[in-house]
Amino acid sequence: MSEHLPSPEAAPTDLASRREQPHVGKTEQVYRYVREAIEAGTFAPGQALPESVLVEQTGASRTPVREALRRLAADQLVEISPRRAPIVTRLSLRQARSLFDYRRVLEPAAVRSIVARLGEEPALAARFTAIGEGFDGLVDQPYSPAFADRFSELTRSFDETVVELTPNEYLARAIVDLRPHVSRLRRIAHADVGRLAESVREHIEMCRAIVDRDADRAAAVCTHHLFHVDQAIFAALLSSSRQSAAPVDIEA
Fold first, then answer.
1. β-bridge mates for residue 88, sequence order
2. Which residue blocks in the chain are alpha helix, DSSP H?
3. Residues 6 or more apart from 45 whose CB is under 8 A from it?
4. How do strand 248-249 and strand 91-92 relate by DSSP bridges?
5. Is the Cβ–Cβ distance between 142 and 94 less than 8 Å?
6. Is the N end or the C end of the chain the one with fewer CB atoms within 10 Å?
7. Distance of alpha carbon 152 from alpha carbon 143, whole angstroms
8. How big is the CA angle at 126 (ends 120 and 131), to the nearest 5 degrees?
9. Which residues have C-beta within 8 Å of that of residue 23, sequence separation ≥ 6?
10. Where is the segment annotated Disordered (predicted)?
11. How far is residue 121's CA from residue 128's CA, in Å, rounded to a whole number?
12. What is the pLDDT of residue 51?
């Protein structure tokens, strides 16, 4: 629901930690590993993912690697073609616009449903009060690595709280399923310091509207926020598409 800043040190989750979870099968381990790497930008759009390399990196055999890649292809994160290594799906301007059109349907609806839920469970409003106060602390602060880290922490908390408190599980799942696609768009978009300041204020407004149980205002601010995020990312993608090596399809 909000733009998280890319972390230069972002890397796939260590598979050693996955092996310590016996209830998670090998296919699931590989799936999560590759999905998180794509989401973090460690596996970049257009990058080849040879099975042999994934076998070496994950310690899994070829069968779970292939099964994980098929799942990722169903998620539209990986492209599989005959006689060539799977590749991380390239980004496209058309898909980016479609994604944000969809988000503007899902996320305001989620916010409205949360406001309705607060009528029966008012104590939950404290979650958004705390997040809003966190954003208040960023107002008028100059950009810095500490600002970026705190911004990412708060936006992640806001997004996760929205998903957690959305009473309709199908609506919540739809939002979660978009996360890796949204994260990939954020990774290729150049950070806009001025846009971040606007986003801080928009999150404050969303939190206040939710706490005030004003569903119309909360949904309107959410839609306004997503429109601005869409414009900023779309402009960055359009700029990237003009660079010869940019992994963006302008027509696709």
1. 78
2. 15-19, 26-40, 51-58, 62-74, 93-118, 125-136, 145-165, 169-177, 179-188, 193-211, 215-241
3. 88, 89, 90, 91, 184, 188, 247, 248
4. parallel
5. no
6. C
7. 13
8. 135
9. none
10. 1-22
11. 13
12. 93
Which of 123, 122, 124, 149 lies closest to 134, judged by CA? 149
Give the pair of three-digit tokens for residue 68.
Answer: 């994980």
Task: Please answer whether residues 99 and 60 qualify as being in contact, where contact means their C-beta atoms are separated by less than 8 angstroms.
Answer: no
- 182-219 pLDDT, tens per residue? 888 876 654 567 788 899 999 999 999 999 999 999 99
Q: Chain-wide mean pLDDT for the chain?
A: 86
Q: Which helix (H) or strand (E) segment is 137 a member of?
A: none
Phi/psi at 91 (nearest 5 deg)?
-90, 150
| C-alpha dihedral (161, 168, 114, 108), degrees to nearest 10 | 90
> Over the range 188-207, which residues count as b (16 or more CB within 10 Å of their CB) and which as e?
bbeeeeebbbebbebbbbbb
Tell me the three-class secondary structure of 48-110, residue by residue. Answer: ECCHHHHHHHHCCCHHHHHHHHHHHHHCCCEECCCCCCCEECCEEHHHHHHHHHHHHHHHHHH
Please, are residues 219 and 1 in contact by the beta-carbon 8 Å criterion?
no
Q: Are 91 and 237 in contact (CB under 8 A)?
A: yes
Distance CA 225, CA 222 (A): 5
pLDDT in tens, 60-91: 999 999 999 999 999 999 999 998 999 999 88
Among 34, 63, 58, 66, smallest CA distance to 47 is for: 34
